[in-house]
Automatic annotation (TrEMBL):
Domain Metallo-beta-lactamase: 106-297
Family annotation (PANTHER family): METALLO-BETA-LACTAMASE DOMAIN-CONTAINING PROTEIN, N-ACYL-PHOSPHATIDYLETHANOLAMINE-HYDROLYZING PHOSPHOLIPASE D
InterPro entries tied to this protein: Metallo-B-lactamas, RibonucZ/Hydroxyglut_hydro
Protein name, UniProt field: L-ascorbate metabolism protein UlaG (Beta-lactamase superfamily)
Cellular component terms (Gene Ontology): cytoplasm
Length: 341
């Protein structure tokens, strides 16, 4: 039986220590406010900004910027062996990862479609064929933008697959007949088979139609194995800001941070909602994670930077900051790493 609850209003919940509140029940049906616009870090662009963007026509790479498409890193390989005591991550492309943690297989923002609404087709294939996936035990969604919440991909899953989603997104999932949908607010947690799912803030926004801006929440996830203590942070989609230090403070000793490095130009338009490579390194430092895995590039043409630039700038900034090279897990699409602890 599900329980109908009312989310407290105001910002008090965003300052409560992580883990202080009881775990939320799986599949709990909840009531949420009509809008989460008060969670925006900065106001969304107005008419003037949109007019400038249209005038500059700077939302896709130039012909010169596209010349490196054939050199984008794509090297699919078999998934590593991961038992109940070993964690591993495999990059399928964009923000889609296969995370093996605590004996579970968890998909993050799964997008296996070739085309998305309003977006050019993928420029690289998916790194892992759907047929080659192990049974999926859970899915986490960061927010409802089409390149992170893909209905055709979700339709491939059994409807009893547990979904962990931001506040307000449960109704969308239940309309598609998913039977175990757990909605969380920032700093809330739930647990499945010994793996803890913590929903944490990000600097972003949400919209799926012309009339639902900020009607659902956005954020990232910390996946924690309660038995081994391993914890993996998935940022989803985000700009740089104060939340990274707060996440690092509440979750010390993160083993891995999966951070976005692409879709950042023009900077005046995207700075507040997408980290560039230098921002991603700052976020990694704020989090205090042991290793960083870049994502959110080399898959869809969402912005104007040259296709190979994100990884080049990331490697340059990583070296400039003096971080050990083996802590940068810049795997190709289809590549994997085992998480040590």
């Amino acid at each position: 039986m599900t329980e109908q609850t009312q989310r407290p209003t105001g910002r008090a919940r965003t300052t409560a220590p992580a883990g202080a509140a009881a775990l939320r029940p799986l599949g709990e049906v909840r009531v949420w406010p009509r809008t989460f616009a008060d969670r925006l870090t900065t106001p969304l662009p107005g008419i003037a900004g949109m007019t400038r963007l249209a005038r500059e026509r700077a939302m896709r790479p130039s012909a010169e910027g596209l010349r490196g498409v054939h050199r984008l890193p794509f090297a699919p390989a078999p998934l590593p062996v991961a038992d109940s005591g070993t964690s591993a991550v495999t990059w399928a492309g964009h923000a889609s990862w296969i995370v093996r943690v605590g004996g579970l297989t968890v998909l993050t923002d799964p997008v296996w479609s070739r085309r998305l609404l309003g977006t050019p087709a993928r420029i690289t294939p998916v790194g892992v064929r759907w047929e080659d996936l192990p049974p999926v035990d859970a899915v986490v969604i960061s927010h409802n933008h089409y390149d992170h919440l893909d209905a055709p991909t979700l339709r491939r899953l059994p409807r009893q697959t547990p979904l962990f989603v931001p506040a307000g997104l449960g109704r969308w999932c239940r309309r598609r007949r998913f039977t175990c949908v757990t909605e969380l607010d920032w700093w809330e947690s739930a647990e499945l088979a010994g793996v803890r799912f913590d929903f944490v803030p990000s600097h972003h926004w949400s919209r799926r139609t012309l009339t639902d801006t900020c009607r659902t929440l956005w954020g990232g996830w910390v996946l924690g194995d309660r038995r081994t203590g391993q914890r993996i942070y998935f940022a989803g989609d985000t700009g740089y800001g104060h939340w990274f230090k707060e996440i690092g403070r509440r979750y010390p000793g993160l083993d891995l941070a999966m951070l976005p490095i692409g879709a950042y130009e023009p900077r005046w338009w995207l700075r507040d909602v997408h980290t560039d490579p230098e921002d991603a390194v700052r976020a990694y430092e704020d989090l205090g994670a042991a290793a960083m895995a870049p994502m959110h590039w080399a898959t869809f043409l969402l912005s104007a930077e040259p296709v190979l630039e994100p990884l080049r700038r990331l490697r340059t900034e990583w070296q400039r900051a003096g971080h050990p090279r083996d802590r940068l897990w810049d795997v190709p699409i289809g590549g994997s790493r085992v998480v040590a602890h």
